[in-house]
Amino acid sequence: MRLLIEPEHCTLIIEKYYSEIFSYCYAKLGYSHHSAEDCTQEVFVVFFSKHEKLDETDNIRLWLYRAADNVIKAFLRKAPPPAVSLEESPEAMNIADSGGFTESGDSPLDLLSPEERQLLELYYNSDYGQRNEAAKRLGLSLPALYRKIHKLKKKLRAAEK
Fold this sequence. Notes:
The protein is mainly α. Helix content is about 65%, strand content about 0%.
C-alpha cells in the first residue's frame, strides 16, 4: 500500500521550501521579483495538485526544483523576463556590493590560466542540461568537469582570503 502525503504535510512542505524555491526562480529569471513570485506560486500550485501521486519516500525538494525548472521554461516561452537594472533590485545590489574586485583593479580570475578561464566560462555559460555536451567538447566526463570546477572554486576562494 502506498503512503500518500497528507494535505497537512503539504502545508509544512510549502513553509519549508517556499523561500528556497523563490530564490532559485529569482536567480533563474534575472532577478525579477514579480516573475519569481509568479513562478514560485505556480510551482506550489502544481505541487498541491499532484501531491496525491507522491509518497513520503519521494525526494520532495528535488521534485520541487524539477517543477520549478518546468514552470520557468513555460513562463519564459510565454513572456521573456523584463530587464532589471541593479539599481531596481536591492538583492542584486547587495550581491554586487559584497565583494568582487580589489581596489587595485586586479581580478581573482587573473590567477587562472587561459584554459581554466575557458573551462569556467564554458561551465557557467551552459545550462545544467547542456553541461554534458560541454564536458564532451572538452574531452571530459561530466563528473570530471564537476571535479575541475570544484578545484577552481577552491583555488579562487583561497586567493580571496
